[in-house]
Amino acid sequence: MATTPAPPQAPPKPTWDPRKPQQLPLPWLRPTIRIRLTLLYGGMFLIAGILLLSIIYLLAAQAIREGSNQSFDIRGSGISITSDTCPVLDAANDDDQRNAALKACNDALRQHALDDLLSRSLLTLLGLAVIAFAFGYAMAGRVLTPLGRITRTARAVAGSDLSRRIELDGPDDELKELADTLDDMLERLQRAFTAQQRFVGNASHELRTPLAINRTLLEVHLSDPAAPPELQQLGKTLLATNERSEQLVEGLLLLARSDNQIVERKPVDLAEVASQAVDQTHAEAEAKGVELRGTRDPVVVQGNGVLLERIALNLVQNAVRYNVPEDGWVEVNTVTQHGQAVLLVSNTGPVVPAYEIDNLFEPFRRLRTERTGSDKGVGLGLSIARSVARAHGGHISATPREGGGLVMRVALPI
Fold it and tell me: In Å, how far from its chain's centre is CA 93?
């Protein structure tokens, strides 16, 4: 009797995300340009000071050696030498002992003078090094002030404020040239962004209007009871095609809008958004025999409620449509993890290899198919979800479930 082979297991997904920058364990040890310039200035001064101190020490040693290199010969019994520095002179009994003691005392005084010179010079060098490092840090900060201004402007532009400009004044050096180049780039970006917004508005009107007219005409013809069955069937087919085109246009326009940052944010309860998505998908899930379950804890985020609802609806709809034929389930949870609002959508379904995960977030792409028609959607759901999550400062990730299906995780800042 043949046994049914076990379904293939999806390969494990890496526990780290290469797209996220790795943070240092101690951020204050980050080697900034200011710190490196400070070390450069102070290190050069310290090396120059050590060289200067060595030269002075050698010259002073040579001068003392030459100045004290004179012979003394004391003869006679009536000579008395008293010294607090060299008390051994007082204990000498004859001329030879006095001469030897005098020479030893002279050498000791010379070495003492050199040691005193070295210690005082080292203390002076240490004080000057501290002053040099402080002065180098201040000068590095002054030199890097234009870079700080450029960074603040770039951060403001990253927050969708393309009207900001650096407008750096001062000498015509490399930093001013960089600032002027960035200003020119921001000007072109603003023009391109304005043109894109204008195009989205025009396309929204030009594409929706004929589709709405076609839908109205088809609905009018389908409402005619005298229409032949063939025309009725053709009208239903055309109406379904028109509806699919409307969904495609709406998805493309939403994708274009959601790629930008959300400027106007309001408090939105992620649990309420997820519950509305579950309610809208309940009829479809019941028709497919898929159980909807989960616990949704209230968690408030700052964002656009309509776009966040689109994320939840797309994820829940995909979880219902791409499920197993029998005894399938979809679990929708909202929790708070590590200071972030998290929406989790898990489902049963086919086995998804880990290397296919990134392809699911590309427009018009599905598992093992690309740019092909399907009655399950237009292939923009996950792309829209990723764009909306990025626009809210969050991210979305997918993890294959053991036994089939996916776990979709949307993390948003609170």
Answer: 85
